[in-house]
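COURSE: Structural Biology Practicum
ASSIGNMENT: Worksheet 4, Part C
STUDENT ID: 0417
INSTRUCTIONS: Below are two proteins. For each, the amino acid sequence is given first, followed by its structure token string. Answer the questions at the end about the second protein only.

PROTEIN I
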Amino acid sequence: MLSTLTDAQAGLPPSLSAEAIGPHVDRLLDEAAIADEIVAAAAHNLAAFGSKRDITAAHLITMLRLADIVAQVNGQILSFAVPSLLKRDAAEAVQAASVALTALRSDRLDLGVDYDLAKLPSLQDLRRHATALRGSGVFGFLSAATKEALHVHASIRTRSGKIAKATAAAELTRLADHIEAVERLRNDTDLHELFGRRFKGLETDAGAAADCAAMGDALRSTLVGYDDVVVELRQIVLSADEDRYRAIAALRGRTLSAAVREQLARLDPATLLTSDLAATLRNRAHAAKA
């Protein structure tokens, strides 16, 4: 099927007998119908991807594979995706960020057992009170700075009971270190660049980001070559918005039959998928009947 599309000669093969003309015409018409489906699929794919280029059989096969990849991705991930998370090596960067986020979240949960984190004073005050407690001697409890530090410590601690000044100083320092680490993460320009508008500091969804990076890797591995169409497809799928991804994913609902896919795979990869494809076959069928 469809082998005649790459033939140099139109009309009847030289060796065709009179008895074989009918089946030959039927085959050409069947091929023309399949060609119509392939050309229609090309048009649907071009519209979904937002391209107006002429494409070949090889390009359509690539587009169908890209659509399969996008369709398998959770819809929430498609809405989460931003170009920076689809870049090469994004997966490694997201993994490193995830480790840092997990450590800070764990530290926050641990601190939250003993302290009301919503009531914490400023970073500067925490360090000032910790310094006051560390510097107080035996009679340090009489100083205003020490009394203030102990009062602040008690006001943010969720557990009752006496605590040594050295222990209170260490805990205030740990709280200050945590706040400083969270601020450092929140202001990290590399993380802002990596996550784009999806960066939410400590609340950043690294899991969704990892899924985006995995989708980017899968899309890139499918896009082989650097002809104009492939370059455009690469730019489209690695920088699309949610609506574009959903349009591409919807292509899977217009699945070509196994027979049509088989014939598409048999086409010369360089065959242009234009309306002339089916017209050529119909013209040959008419010529065979004449």
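PROTEIN II
(use this one for the questions)
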Amino acid sequence: MAKSTSKKKGTKKKATSKAKTTPAKTTKTAKQEGTGTDSEKKTNQGKQKAKVSKKDLLFEKFEGWNPETLYVPPAEEGETKLFTAPPFFEGSKEADQNRMEKMLLQTYSSEDLKNAAEKAEAERKAAEEKAAAEKAEAERKAAEEKAAAEKAEAERKAAEEKAAAEKAEAERKAAEEKAAAEKAEAERKAAEEK
């Protein structure tokens, strides 16, 4: 396991130094004038002329490519030729199947969604107004019942007070009459004794 790595480092340096020198020689030979064939000179000149700015490249238009003959898949044979897709939806009853197909294939437009939102808002407001009216009606009835109960209680108390006052008046009168009768009786007895 303990191998020396010094040899590997030396080989790497040699390999990189060879790689650096090799391309430099080839580029110098390609750039030298008067060497090479005519075709190489033409390609070198074409490369020098082909330098285009990035802006020109960005705005350059390229034509689309179309093949000479379009691909046609091979004709189906045997069982695959008779293949049909399963039904989109299967229901236990035909009515259910028709209903579900209609529901699944139903489309909406932006106007439908706006109308549905407006309808829902109107229904919500109507429900709030109805609830407020019912609450007000219940509060009114409760207030009426409370007022009627208070009136009945006041009348009952007034009747009780009147009855108590009449009773007290009757008792007072009876006491006065009794006192007057006793006084008259005492005066009569006193007169008889004289």
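ANSWER KEY EXCERPT:
Q1: Helices lie at 6-31, 38-49, 54-59, 94-104, 110-193.
Q2: The first helix runs from residue 6 to 31.
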